[in-house]
Specification:
Low-confidence stretches: none
Order of helices and strands: H
Mean pLDDT: 90
Structural class: mainly alpha
Number of strands: 0
Number of helices: 1
Shape: rod-shaped
Number of domains: 1
Helix content: over 70%
Distance between the termini: 93 Å
Largest sheet: none
Length: about 70
Amino acid sequence: MAYPTAVNNQITDSVSQVNTKVLGDAPAMAMGNLLQATAQALANASHNATSAQQQNNILAQAVTTRCVKMLTS
């Protein structure tokens, strides 16, 4: 319970409880933010890997086409 003030005791108790709840929720919120950031980073890495594979396949097709053209001409 808060020290006696000019404000109603119920109000000060309510504010104290809300402050305690916010402090109690902070670790869970931090962990949620960490997990969300990790998931986003992994999704970006996966997307970049897929894009790189596609670009490598396009390059391989172009090189193969060019080599076949050189062999047949």
